[in-house]
Amino acid sequence: QVQLVESGGGLVQPGGSLTLSCVASGFSLNDYAVGWHRQAPGKEREVVSCISTDGGTYNHDSMKGRVTISRDKSKNTVSLQMNSLRPDDTAVYFCAADVTGYGCYDTSAVEYWGQGTQVTVSS
């Protein structure tokens, strides 16, 4: 079965850190560009960070300096480390994969989506 599964979400205090993981089954994530997107209640889904097949990365301006995206090729996994979290980072975070890499900029290019993991930043 081809799927992406996210984990690592939860409740964290402002200023805290979380690491989200996205593991693929049924295909090699190493052959795909991977992005993390998020959607807060009442807002549109937006990209957070992306990593290409050759390791190039992109981070949304609102997350620059606070996130690191990385691959573990041996585990077929992409992780997103988030630091200095703020209440406005509260959202459901989704993992997305596509062969072209355009999915980072145009979600219609995304081939696979995970089910999402909730991140709540609150004291």
Uncertain spans: none
- What fraction strand? over 45%
Order of helices and strands: EEEEEEEEEEE
Fraction of residues in H or I helices: under 10%
Based on DSSP secondary structure assignment, what is the total number of beta strands?
A: 11
- Morphology call: globular
Q: Output mean pLDDT.
A: 96
The biggest sheet, with number of strands, parallel, antiparallel or mixed sense and barrel status, is: 7 strands, mixed
User: What integer value in Å does the Rg equal?
Assistant: 13 Å
Task: Report the span from N to C terminus.
Answer: 39 Å
Total helical segments: 0
Please state the structural category: mainly beta
Which helices and strands appear, and what pairs or packs with what?
Blueprint: E1 3-7, E2 10-12, E3 18-25, E4 33-39, E5 46-51, E6 57-59, E7 67-72, E8 77-82, E9 91-98, E10 112-113, E11 117-121
Parallel strand pairs: 2-11
Antiparallel strand pairs: 1-3, 3-8, 4-5, 4-9, 5-6, 7-8, 9-10, 9-11
List keywords for this structure.
123 residues; mainly beta; 0% helix; four-stranded antiparallel beta sheet; single chain
Overview of the structural elements:
- The termini are far apart.
- With 123 residues, the protein is mainly β.
- It has no helices and eleven strands.
- It is globular.
- The strands form two sheets. Strands 2, 4, 5, 6, 9, 10 and 11 form a seven-stranded mixed sheet that branches. It has a four-stranded antiparallel sheet with strand order 1-3-8-7, with no helix packed on it.
Short description:
By secondary structure, the chain is mainly beta. The chain has strands at 3-7, 10-12, 18-25, 33-39, 46-51, 57-59, 67-72, 77-82, 91-98, 112-113, 117-121. It is 0% helix and 48% strand.
